[in-house]
Each structure stands twice: as structure tokens, then as C-alpha cells.
Amino acid sequence: MGYNHHGLVYSINVIFPQKVLAGKTPRHFLCRALLSAKTMETAQQILRDRGTGSADGFSVNMSFTRQEGDHLFHNAEVGPAQDTDESPMSILTLSPGEHLLHTNKFLRLTHIPEEVGLCMTSSDHRHARAAQLPSPDNREDLECSTY
């Protein structure tokens, strides 16, 4: 997790692709570089890492608290840059009132093979359980024990 004086706040979820690439930028470095982002455009440029690309996979949940208008929430999935010099990336932007469950698996970059194991099984179970529940309409729904 991190934040900066430009109003960026973010958290990271690790995603485990089958191949972690040598000679590419480790996710720790890209996430550290996010601390310099002043805008969403800059954050995307950092994560895309043109010229090298990411060595592995991760998901970034972020928001810019000092922007004008509604506070938007962004989820970026970043994958390993295999056979390319920039990270494959998918950005989902949510407005106030929308919600997202994102665990340690790709939801949009589904063409990237992931490791099979406990982390994937756990993620699949959490998504399956969430699919059984009604969508939350307010904060109280999120705090309710039936969720």
C-alpha cells in the first residue's frame, strides 16, 4: 500500500502468472515508482513501463483523492511483458456507488496463464461466494453479517 502528496492512494494484490520473466521490471519497482504519480495518466505510464515491461503480474487498486469532481476508483491489472517491451494492462474505472471484488487472479487479462495452486483455489472460492450474495447498496450492507 502507498500514498503520495499528490493525493494518490493505492494497494496491490499479487497475481501469480505461470512465467515470471527475467530481464523485466519487478512489480516491487513499478509499485514504488507509483509514488511519483501526479495523475491517472502518469500512473498508467508507470505501470505500462514502455521499453521494458513488467516481469510478473499484479493488480493495483487506486484513487486520486485531490481530483475535482467525483472520486473515481481504478483497478489496473498488469501482466508480464512476454514477447513485448511494455506491460499488458487493463484498467477498470468505477464511479461512486459501484463496487468490485478483485482477488489474486486476472479477471480481465484472462489470456495470461496463471499458476495453479492454493492461491488460485482461494481466489476462485472467494469469487464464487461473492456471486451468491446480493450486491451491496450501502455501507451497512457491507457491515452486515449476512454478507
Walk me through the structure.
The protein is α+β, with helices and mostly antiparallel strands and 147 residues long. The chain has a single domain, classed as 4-Layer Sandwich (Penicillin V Acylase, Chain A), CATH 3.60.60.10. It is 24% helix and 20% strand. The protein has four helices and five strands. The chain has a five-stranded antiparallel β-sheet with strand order 1-2-3-4-5, covered by helices on one side. A hairpin with an 8-residue loop joins strand 3 and strand 4. The longest helix has 15 residues, at 118-132. It starts with a strand and ends with a helix. The model has no long low-confidence stretch (mean pLDDT 92). This is Peptidase C45 hydrolase domain-containing protein. InterPro entries: Peptidase_C45 (IPR047801), Peptidase_C45_hydrolase (IPR005079). Residues 127-147 are annotated as: Disordered. Residues 1-135 form the Peptidase C45 hydrolase domain. It comes from Portunus trituberculatus (Swimming crab).
Distance between the termini: 25 Å
Q: List segments where confidence is low: pLDDT < 50 over at least 5 consecutive residues.
A: none
Mean residue pLDDT: 92
Shape: flat
Given this structure, which CATH class is correct?
Answer: Alpha Beta
Strand content: 15-25%
Q: Note the main sheet.
A: 5 strands, antiparallel
Say how many strands there are.
Answer: 5
CATH architecture: 4-Layer Sandwich
CATH topology group: Penicillin V Acylase, Chain A
Number of domain units: 1
Side by side, the strands of the main sheet go 1-2-3-4-5
Number of helices: 4
